[in-house]
Design brief:
Structural class: alpha/beta
Shape: globular
Radius of gyration: 20 Å
Bound molecules: S-adenosylmethionine, iron/sulfur cluster
Distance between the termini: 35 Å
Oligomer: single chain
Number of strands: 13
Largest sheet: 9 strands, mixed
Number of helices: 11
Order of helices and strands: HHEEEHEHEEHHHEHEHHEEEEEH
Strand content: 15-25%
């Protein structure tokens, strides 16, 4: 089954080459075939690091760590996350460091670390401690990537990540206040201009800044898309990622029709993105753009064939098998608590 997932994801990350005016009936048929094989073959048995295979000698691995907390839960978001509670989040970071020790005990070494969320910067002191811990356990780690919302960039604690994080990916989604209001992000994360100013100020903290944008929102006109791309380019980040608004079973009710533009509009928006960024950026994958061809990191972590994930809801791909860690915070804490090592 892993080969199906792999080939599907390889299709997804293939740089744009083909004619994007594929008829809708063909796309829906392909989706149905994909769904058939996923339902038939994919068995998600949740396990944590205590039951992972040992590493293969000489193989290069990446460490993925998931932080499933956010101060606000955006209705369009498809990621595994819970509403932030400080006591729960602190407990979680301790368990995460313990699970890293379990990976060390299995014999794993890593060259690279990707911390994803949720919002990885919900508690900067815990995040800093976790990165330091990872670097002590795995001295081979040369680069660390994190994700943040724009609000956190303004906090004084954010500065403690300087020197620890090589790539900071910031969820802008749009600089347009109308889109931010519609997605309920304006009051929570600040206006487009505030976000722009915060990113400008944070640029000196990290070697690589990535700006995440989303296209395919209702009311996101060509002018808004262009202005989003112009504002992003003006910041001159090393990377820009432009996601199409994705809808899953969980978000279908809250997003489809309410936040999402008709499918046809996305096609022309994607074309506009390609036209606008070509020349300034190299296309790294379907949605990721970088100043150079070799950026080290991109949103799909395609540089490493195999990776080990720690944390609730994390995925690992090892020995051609996909492993999924439990999505329940309670079960996650219980599993890690049985292990003897401290974090
Ligand atoms: C895991 S989130 C972390 C970012 C951070 N929490 C924030 O909101 O600013 C990473 C990125 O995934 C993208 N994303 C989340 N839900 C999406 C969806 N339904 N469709 C497309 N992109 C999505 C957003 O661009 C977001 O910035
Ligand atoms: S978009 Fe970011 S802040 Fe919003 S719920 Fe998703 S991970 Fe959390």
């Amino acid at each position: 089954m892993s080969s199906i997932i792999q080939s599907a994801s390889q299709e997804l990350i293939k740089p744009y080459q083909a004619n994007i005016t594929v008829p809708n009936w063909m796309i829906s048929s392909m989706e149905r075939v994909m769904q058939y094989y996923v339902d038939k073959n994919l068995r998600l048995d949740t396990i944590s690091t205590d039951r992972m295979p040992k590493p293969v000698e000489g193989k290069k691995y990446m460490l993925y760590a998931h932080i499933p907390f956010c101060h606000t839960l955006c209705s369009f978001c498809t990621f595994h996350r819970f509403l932030f509670r400080e006591d729960k989040a602190r407990e979680y970071f301790i368990a995460l460091r313990k699970e890293m020790q379990m990976a060390k005990d299995l014999g794993y070494e890593f060259e690279s670390m990707y911390i994803g969320g949720g919002t990885t910067t919900v508690l900067e002191d815990e995040l800093a401690r976790t990165i330091e811990h990872a670097k002590t356990l795995f001295p081979g780690i040369k680069e660390v990537s994190c994700e943040s919302d724009p609000q956190h960039l303004a906090s004084p604690e954010f500065k403690q990540l300087k020197g620890l994080v090589d790539r900071m990916s910031i969820g802008v989604q749009s600089f347009d206040d109308g889109i931010l209001k519609m997605t309920d992000r304006l009051d929570k994360f600040g206006s487009g201009q505030e976000t722009f100013d915060r990113i400008m100020a944070a640029k000196e903290l990290f070697p690589i800044i990535n700006v995440d944008l989303i296209f395919g929102f209702k009311g996101q006109t060509d002018e808004i898309i262009q202005s989003d791309l112009d504002m992003a380019s003006k910041l001159d980040p090393r990377q820009i990622t432009t996601y199409p608004l994705m809808i899953t079973h969980q978000t279908r009710k809250s997003v489809k029709g309410q936040l999402a533009a008709p499918h046809g509009e996305m096609v022309s928006q994607y074309r506009q993105i390609l036209n606008s960024l070509t020349g300034q950026y190299n296309q790294l994958s379907a949605w990721a753009f970088g100043k150079t061809d070799n950026e080290g990191f991109d949103e799909y972590v395609i540089d490493y064939d195999e990776y080990l994930g720690v944390g609730s809801g994390s995925f690992s791909f090892l020995n051609d098998t996909l492993y999924v860690n439990t999505f329940s915070l309670k079960k996650y804490q219980q599993r890690i608590a049985h292990e003897p090592h401290g974090g």
